Amino acid sequence: MSMRTAILTALVPALLGTAAGLAPAHSEPRAPAAVVTLTYDAGAAGPWANSIDQAVRNWNDAVHNVRLEPASSPASADYVYEATSGWPQATLGPVFPGGSGDVQLGRQAVDEGYDAIRITAHETGHILGLPDDYSGPCSELMSGHGPGTSCTNAKPDAAEAAQVDINYAAGVATAHRPRRQVVIDIWSGRTLTRSH
User: Fold this and answer.
1) Which of 41, 64, 124, 172 is deepest in the core (most CB within 10 A)?
2) What pairing do the DSSP bridges indicate for beta strands 181-185 and 89-92?
3) Where would one find the signal peptide in this protein (predicted)?
4) Is residue 110 a part of any domain in this protein?
């Protein structure tokens, strides 16, 4: 018995030393070199100001690699919010600093009964690089008008937030700037997309 104890006493520290040098079985998600800050101008958004504030707060609470902040001047904004009388539409990003994104907050969707904060958060999702998924459930922000007017969820789900974090994980230095597209969200069921 004393021989076994002596062998175990010698092996345990050796095994622990070896295990201490191993990498963990799973690693944490890689953080970007720096958080990407996107600035916006809401000077032409009129009655949408409160919806914009809440939608931006929802996105900033959900993601880690990008932060949305008001621009110091309209000319320095990476994207703009503006009130329109038509249908909501936005530039399909991801938009990066120095970009020229546009969110048109169309009154027609609100007139049909859709929630203004959900519309604003949904269109902001396009700026961050998320496409529409109208067949998704209400819990999915990018399902847009799909779940109907009773859906007022204005927060991205975990998968949407994760995709935005992936879109901005490389930071600004290695940002891929895709061809600019404008997604027109016809909240009554029709969808048009045009490229620029």
Assistant:
1) 124
2) antiparallel
3) 1-25
4) yes
For residue 31, the 8-state DSSP code is: P
Tens digit of each residue's pLDDT (9 = 90 or more) over 4-45? 434 334 433 343 343 334 334 444 455 546 899 999 999 999
Verify whether residue 82 is a known catalytic residue: no
The enclosing domain of 87 has a CATH number of: 3.40.390.10
Helix count and strand count (H, E) for the chain: 5, 7
Does some domain include residue 169?
Answer: yes
- Count CB-CB contacts under 10 A for residue 116: 21
Cα separation of 82 and 113, whole Å? 20
Of 28, 69, 82, 123, the active-site residue reads 123
The answer to whether residue 9 is domain-embedded is no
Domain containing 184: what range?
Answer: 36-195
Residue 3 lies in a domain: no
Residues of the chain with pLDDT under 50: 1-28, 32, 175, 178-180, 182, 188-196
Cα–Cα distance, 90 to 114 (Å, whole number): 17
Query: pTM of the full predicted structure?
Result: 0.76
